[in-house]
Amino acid sequence: MTALLELAVDDKRYGTRTILRGFHLRLEVGEVVSLIGASGCGKSSLLSIAAGLDGQYRGSVRLRGGAIRGTHAEIGLIFQEPRLFPWLTVEQNVVFGADGAPDDGRIAALLEEVGLAGYGKSLPKQLSGGQAQRVAIARGLYTQPRVLLLDEPFSAVDAFTRMRLQDLLARVAEQHRLSVLLVTHDIDEALYLSDRIVLMDGVPGPARAEFEVDHARPRERAVLATSKLKPAILDSLHAVHAI
Amino acid sequence: MQRRSLLQLAASGLALSALPLSSRAANLEELRLDYAYYSPTSLVLRHFGWLEEAFKAEGTRVKWVLSAGSNRALEYLNANSIDIGSSAGLAALLAKANGTPIRTPYIYSRPEWTALVVPKNSPIRTLADLKGKKVAATKGTDPYLFLLRSLQSVGLRRNDIEHVALQHADGRAALEQGRVDAWAGLDPHMAAAELEGGARLLYRNVSFNTYGFLNVREDFLVKYPQQTARVIAAYEKARLWTRANPSEAAKILASEAKVSLPVALLQVKLRSDFSNPQPSNEHLKALQLAAPILREEALVKPGTDLNAAIAGLIDTRFAQQLIARA
Amino acid sequence: MKPHTIDLPLPASAPAPRKPWRLPLGLLLPLLAVAALEFGVRSGLVPANLMPAPSEIATTLAWLAQNGLPGHLASSCLRVAAGFAIGASLALVLGAAVALNHRTERLLDPSFQALRAIPSLAWVPLLLLWFGIDETPKLILIAIGAFFPVYMGVVSGIRGVDRKLLEVGQLYRLSPLALARRVLLPAALPAVLTGLRNGLSLAWMFMVAAELIAASQGLGYLLSDGRESSRADIMLAAIVLLALLGKFSDTAMGALEARLLSWRDSYANRSAR
């Protein structure tokens, strides 16, 4: 069966340093996959390639089997920082990526969904970090992508906000039937959100390990805290010298 | 009785001894005065170094500053940048009436140094033709005031022409480049324009020229009367030498002002009169005749007493002992 | 699970309440200075031929108002407006061209930087020589004055745009033109407006320089007029008017800037949250 998204990076370098070599990743419809690994192992580069922002590599990105080059309407990306345009209101930021007249109903629904009902006319300078990231998520969803890529999206907020945003992502992914590829440093986050956790090695090559997360949804953090997966992941991270 | 006369004696003794003491106390460190191309005797004086000689014994430095026009000389006097400056009479009156603290103890020349100049093939033939035209003139100088008085003689005001404010040399350049229709000229630039540029003198009037005034700052005159007298004596030396050697004086002018010898000769020999340096009724009358234009063209503040200014400006007594009969 | 709504207070999206009237503290220093000067001249401490009393300057201003002042004001303001318009629009176009295109930058920028190094007033004799004494050299001089601050503002503003914002534009497949219009220019606006404001105040300065050359009307002409006639009161009246006009136009620019940049999260706007 053809995966929704298939990444195959044969060779990716920065100058003389090889970052990725012979790395493959499949993303099925409705799947949530987390990428974990040491700093500098190429996770962000992989996302850039998948999003179509980086074309300097040997390999391919396939959507439903068809090769694509450059950015694609069905693949969205959420950055580590909110990256809102400060001169646009929340509403204007949300519709930024789309052509045509803004769909006010859809904007309102999305804002409500991310917990920012009524904030449409506010300016980014009036928002907290967590609120801004919510707007970024709403913006990412507005264009109705099928795949959502997220690059450490919650690393810049405090622990409590992070947990709330994780809840939001889980909800949104289910609601919109998204396939999600998430890069994170937070093992608990990965366990909470993912169907599959892929561990990347610091040494360029294929994925070092993969973990299936079998826990039923909706996930409960208290249960995950005692999961046997976590020590296994920690061991693997130790083995690749990530920790 | 005895004590009182003793005190009187002591007082007069002190007063006597105070006299030479006060003149010694007023020791001048630096004498600052101007030289200008419109004052040939100043150039002669500077050339021969007679002032430096006269003041060497006292150890006074002599500093010479070039004045590009009466307006500049009077500005420097007002700002106390020079102690003695050369300007036209009417210009000095304008400055005095507006508050510049100067007095004139000496007339350095009686020139016919200004006239209205037009280019060689100008269609302008009479003063009335100037209406609506562009005329270059240096504000605050004799040529400018000459222009106003000339216009007045045919019923025109300064608003009837377009006045372009340029310093004397730039005014000549503007005339020759065709940028202005007429120019209120000043020697030596005017002489040069005639002889070298073929310019024509549209209107001359010797009585509208108001003499070369040697102005001294009032506070300098009060504090250093001896030194002022010495400067006037030096100027006398230059004046007599110029009268005896006009061609040589013209050579000095030519080399300083960078004009040709014929131009310099025109200014010195034909258009300057060095015979009467003592300020007198003649000069008072000339200014009284000229003064109304200052009020009519609003160059002085409304309500200024011009006669008082004239009286306060011209000092007919200071130089009387110093001027040789020649 | 029902989505949570965050219970944070809504930020103020309605217009901010009117600021209460405060004592115009900025007037204090000028008023004190005027009072001190008036006293100084009246009592003879300050020589009146060097510094006329403020009351006298006021009288002169009143007299000028009846005798040609509107003409002088119109002359000067028109010159500034025209020169600034020319210089600023050229700078906006050329600055954008240089900042957006590498080849244009390598071609033009070195020359502009060299020209910028020429001390402004050194242009005066050259312009006089080439263009004479009419309006042309004056407008060119003013335009030169306005050009460089605006040019620098545009170039540095565009160059300084955060790469992260540009990436968002790339992600949404904006064409180069749309990217420039929707991301670069708004992001560069603060620097551009600063450049425009500086350019305007330089335009005033260059206007005075231009009028000192050879003018028959204007505030610079008045200034020179006062100088040549030993009328310090006219000189100061001209200076007072120049200060007022300059301040007025700068305040207007500042108000425009504040309006266009109200979205900025900066030290200047900190009370607006």
Provide a descriptive summary of the structure in words.
The complex is a heterotrimer of chains A (243), B (326) and C (273). Chain A has helices at residues 43-51, 90-94, 104-113, 129-142, 159-175, 187-193, 221-224, 229-239; strands spanning 5-14, 17-27, 32-37, 58-63, 66-68, 75-78, 147-151, 179-183, 196-200, 209-212. Chain A has 243 residues and is an alpha/beta fold. Chain A has two domains: 1-74 and 147-165 and 179-243, P-loop containing nucleotide triphosphate hydrolases (Rossmann fold), CATH 3.40.50.300; 82-145. In chain A, strands 6-7-8-3-9-10 form a six-stranded mixed sheet, sandwiched between helices. Chain A has a four-stranded antiparallel sheet with strand order 2-1-4-5, covered by helices on one side. The radius of gyration of chain A is 18 Å and the shape is globular. Residues 12-25 of chain B have low confidence and may be disordered. Chain C has helices at residues 28-42, 54-66, 69-100, 102-116, 123-131, 135-159, 163-171, 176-214, 219-228, 232-260. Classes of the chains: A alpha/beta (243), B alpha/beta (326), C mainly alpha (273). Chain A binds chain C through residues 51, 53, 70-71, 73, 77, 79, 81, 83, 85-88, 96-97, 112-113, 115-119, 121-128, 131, 143, 164, 167-168, 171, 218, and chain C through 1, 3-6, 8, 10-13, 164-165, 167-168, 170-173, 183, 186-187, 189, 262-265, 269, 273.
What is the topology?
The complex is a heterotrimer of chains A (243), B (326) and C (273).
Chain A: E1 5-14, E2 17-27, E3 32-37, H1 43-51, E4 58-63, E5 66-68, E6 75-78, H2 90-94, H3 104-113, H4 129-142, E7 147-151, H5 159-175, E8 179-183, H6 187-193, E9 196-200, E10 209-212, H7 221-224, H8 229-239
Chain B: H1 2-25, E1 30-35, H2 40-48, H3 50-56, E2 61-66, H4 70-78, E3 84-88, H5 89-97, E4 102-111, E5 114-118, E6 134-137, H6 142-153, E7 162-165, H7 168-176, E8 182-186, H8 189-197, E9 200-203, E10 212-217, H9 218-223, H10 225-244, H11 246-257, H12 261-270, E11 272-273, H13 281-290, H14 292-296, H15 306-313
Parallel strand pairs in B: 1-2, 6-7, 6-8
Antiparallel strand pairs in B: 3-10, 4-10, 4-11, 5-8, 5-9
Chain C: H1 28-42, H2 54-66, H3 69-100, H4 102-116, H5 123-131, H6 135-159, H7 163-171, H8 176-214, H9 219-228, H10 232-260
Helix pairs in contact in C: 2-10, 3-4, 3-6, 3-8, 3-9, 5-6, 6-8, 7-8, 8-9, 8-10, 9-10
